[in-house]
Design a protein that fits this description.
This protein is mostly helical. Helix content is 75%, strand content 2%. It has a domain of 30 residues. The protein has 20 helices and 2 strands. Helix 5 packs across helix 7 and helix 18 packs parallel to helix 20.
Length: 392
């Protein structure tokens, strides 16, 4: 047996040869199924505790307590959702594992496992209960971050909202409205996005979190930017940054996927550029990226770099900043592969700008085929314009 004394609690692990021998003996004795059930039940109880402590414990302490159990959690879910398992245990395990997958940035793992859990819900749960609502929300959020907004996430957010409204859950109404908003905003209907944002702002007044209405202001301001109402967007973002205080439990990172200060700085940076203030725009973009880096939160790093900082740096002709921001994004790619297409796209644009249009156009053209056209429309259009310059 090996002992790991590096943490607050000593962890013990059987050597692999001993584990293999013990597994064979369990099978010979006809007790492997019972052992698998006990194993899954133990981790279901552990994750229920982890879920309840998620917003109350300091992040570092919470991660120290629970991050090492991820492999056991996966084994437990595999058994529970197998034909010989217990789907009720599997669904509970999956729902309570969402914070752990999110913190470990295992977003594709989260999406596929939640999708599996939704497919085996028992009839009483599938009638629209809290557990189903939580799973739909987790699936929608993970799908948005891994595949971009689209029909898959839209349907899941709509299902979340229907259940949340029926059972009177304000928190999940806001999560769903946020998801519906981002789907419209990054798609083709800013009018529908504004409608969803205003509905969010209205529901947020009923929330116990005093920062939620400010999040509503932030997403309204983002739509105003997309509609070309630059001064209104700028005023809104500046007011948000003056008023917003991030919850100490970092709950907004889970509920709304990105740090709200990072997203406000990103929108303000783009707005300042369009208003003709390139130096201020670049300064704000750097602030956004630094904040995201300090948070060590990959989705926020992605937002600050791919959706704002890199674009502003290239528009300003600031190659050192563009390279630095791409390097920051590259670090996030090591943990979240789906971000890699943005690096390839920007590298292609840089090659075109540096006088190698043939190679740059090839790289950028391939990247654009991998980038969902409905996702992040303004940035997709900018990259298409860069490709046109490469072909010129």
């Amino acid at each position: 047996m090996a002992a790991d004394t590096g943490g607050a609690v000593t962890q013990y692990r059987l050597l692999e040869s001993t584990r293999s021998y013990a597994r064979e003996k369990l099978i010979e004795a006809g007790e492997s199924a019972a052992a698998a059930r006990r194993h899954a039940s133990y981790y279901a109880a552990l994750l229920e505790r982890a879920h309840s402590e998620f917003l109350s414990k300091p992040l570092a302490e919470w991660m120290a307590d629970y991050s090492s159990c991820i492999d056991n959690v996966h084994v437990a879910i595999d058994w529970a959702l197998s034909p010989d398992g217990d789907s009720d245990i599997g669904v509970a395990l999956t729902a309570n594992a969402v914070p752990l997958w999110t913190r470990l940035t295992l977003l594709e793992e989260c999406r596929t496992r939640v999708e599996r859990a939704l497919s085996v819900l028992s009839p009483d749960v599938a009638r629209g209960g809290k557990r189903e609502m939580q799973l739909f929300a987790a699936f929608a959020a993970a799908s948005t971050l891994t595949k971009g907004p689209g029909l898959e996430s839209e349907l899941a957010w709509s299902a979340t909202l229907q259940i949340a409204e029926r059972i009177g859950d304000i928190d999940y109404q806001l999560r769903a409205l946020w998801g519906i908003w981002i789907g419209h905003h990054t798609g083709e209907s800013q009018a529908k996005a504004l409608e969803a944002a205003r509905k969010f702002r209205e529901v947020a007044t009923l929330s116990s979190d005093v920062a939620d209405p400010i999040v509503g202001d932030r997403i309204i301001g983002t739509v105003l930017w997309a509609q070309g109402e630059l001064q209104a967007a700028r005023s809104t973002m500046e007011q948000v940054l003056r008023s917003y205080v991030a919850p100490s439990d970092r709950s907004h990172l889970i509920r709304f996927q990105f740090d709200q200060r990072v997203t406000a700085y990103s929108a303000l940076s783009l707005t300042l550029w369009l208003q003709g203030f390139p130096e201020q725009a670049m300064e704000i973009a750097e602030t956004s990226a630094q904040l995201a880096q300090n948070l060590a939160h990959d989705p926020s790093i992605f937002h600050a770099t791919a959706l704002s900082g890199c674009r502003v740096a290239l528009l300003a002709g600031d190659r050192p900043s563009a390279d630095r921001l791409l390097a920051l994004l590259q670090g996030a790619v090591a943990r979240q592969v789906s971000y890699g297409v943005w690096i390839r796209a920007y590298r292609g644009e840089i090659m075109i700008r540096d006088g190698d249009p043939e190679a740059g156009s090839r790289l950028l053209e391939v990247a654009l085929t991998e980038l969902p056209k409905a996702a992040f429309h303004a940035h997709y259009a900018s990259l298409r314009a860069a490709l046109a310059r490469g072909f010129a």
